[in-house]
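REQUEST FORM: STRUCTURE PREDICTION
Request ID: SP-0412
Submitted by: Lab K.M.
Chain count: 1
Length (residues): 95
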Amino acid sequence: METTFIDYAVESGVATITLKRPEIAKAHPFALRQAKRAVSQTLDAQGFYAAIQSEFDVHQAGHGHALSESGLPILMLLDSMKEQINKPTPSANGS
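STATUS: Completed
RESULT:
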């Protein structure tokens, strides 16, 4: 049984979502909302909300770090950062 109900594609900067199961589009809107609510409540019971909140906290901490490092809420010049990370470090014996 196929569990994916949509195809998602981005072409030339335009996102397109296509239902794989057209009978879903024909369902009553209230029934769809009820089904979505049931799935959301199940995910919440399994810890989904806590996991999302945790990731958001980590994400926001990254913005705080970037602000303290660069004065901007995002780290700019990522190419130069990658160069610094990939730069060979001098060996301990000085060669």
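NOTES: The chain has a mean pLDDT of 81.
Reviewed by: T.R.
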